[in-house]
């Protein structure tokens, strides 16, 4: 228990795990083996900066090695600590199992406020942290593959990949030691947007099932739905942008560190993001809508869909009863505490759980890892062959029409779309869409198929734990 009288993040994950295993038929020994975190490595290292030696503390936690490599992001934040890293590593195990990414779960973190350091300093710190992890095989293409998380992105991943390559000059698979790299440094198209894109695909899939939509007391599709988003970082920005620009949802509020912007007419996400870029990440002073100094209070606004996309524990026992959204999509990891989850479920809210909702990132990371190991970009072999076959068909149809005087004409728009072979981005999006649909259906089957399973989170845990258990059993453990 922490000072707020609520379990810690890791305890929250354990309680959710136990709520699911209570409905499963696992031997107590196996249940314990799956639940516990295998190891956490703590490193303290010094870097000479600004004329003095600065000491940093970092972690890399490995939750489960039932499949290897293990996978999970590296977070840069002052709030990073062992409990948090272990909770996030556990979630990675369940997330990978749910979306059938063949990885165990891991997570890393560095106690640092990245905004306090300039780019060159951050590179020195990142390379030193990576060095400490690489020499212990806690970064390795076959054993442990990090990715971006809060406070890190393509730039940090490129430094880590380069550091690994420098220390392993003969490893032909060196690029696969980390994912989320920029495309020019071995990354994959569509990785930056992947988690937000996954949130969009998760919601699209949810809205395909009228019965599920009705459980949240909603109807229809995403068009016109009022959405509140917390955190306009990598995940929140992309989710909000795609939902508003492509699905017609209306983002009525965005909550950030220093307050919230509220506009019942809908916020232009691109404009707000650009504003933040010009104003040190602040939403204050944005010329449209109104400003609310208490950003967290925006979570309590009346809306159809609430998307917490910043950090954990933001919906807790203290505010859960005030949350009005009937549908909550956990784009962040662990945004709802165990206590708040109980309150919200009693109120009848439907929660699309983190291990599913934000799994787009690890899914596309999986594609990137496969690309790095196969040393060829997706679509390179088949794209033009696909276009050639489509062209044959179009030419044959046009020839038949002319020969038989049928007067058929194919619209220019159809021809352009039909004749375009799939490039890497199209294939990544297709693979992500398929993954999100399939994973939702596996959760849904348990949610609807077993009367004692009341919510999607428990269903997600049951699907994941069952898959991890099967792997352990087949190994003879
Ligand atoms: P990010 O650092 O890019 O963005 C986080 C955003 O939240 C920032 O804009 C920050 O200003 C804002 N924020 C921080 N504290 C806040 C507060 N108290 N109230 C409101 N806003 C606040 O991080 P991200 O990569 O978008 O990650 C966000 C969440 O999504 C985390 O929980 C992370 O674990 C999870 N996640 C990220 C990925 C990924 O691919 N990046 C994948 C899966 C899950």
Describe what this molecule looks like in 3D.
Helix 1 runs parallel beside helix 3, helix 6 crosses helix 8 (234-246) and helix 12 packs across helix 15. The chain has 16 helices and twelve strands. Among the domains are: 9-189, Leucine Dehydrogenase, chain A, domain 1 (Rossmann fold, 3-Layer(aba) Sandwich); 217-348, 3-Layer(aba) Sandwich (Rossmann fold), CATH 3.40.50. The chain is α/β, with parallel strands linked by helices and 477 residues long. Nicotinamide-adenine-dinucleotide binds at residues 148-151, 195, 230-236, 255-257, 281, 295, 309-311, 331-333, 358, 361.
**How large, in whole angstroms, is the Cα Rg?**
23 Å
Give the helices and strands as they follow along the chain.
HHEEEHEHEHHHEHEEHEEEHEHHHHHH
Placed side by side, the strands forming the largest sheet appear as 9-8-7-6-10-11-12
Poorly predicted spans: none
Strand content: 15-25%
Main structural class? alpha/beta
Q: Would you identify the CATH architecture of one domain?
A: 3-Layer(aba) Sandwich
* Tally of DSSP β-strands: 12
The CATH class of one domain turns out to be Alpha Beta
CATH names the topology of one domain as: Rossmann fold
CATH superfamily of one domain: Leucine Dehydrogenase, chain A, domain 1
Q: Give the cofactors and ligands.
A: nicotinamide-adenine-dinucleotide
Distance between the termini: 32 Å
Count of helical segments?
Answer: 16
What kind of sheet is the major sheet?
7 strands, mixed
Helical fraction: 40-55%
Give the rounded overall mean pLDDT: 96
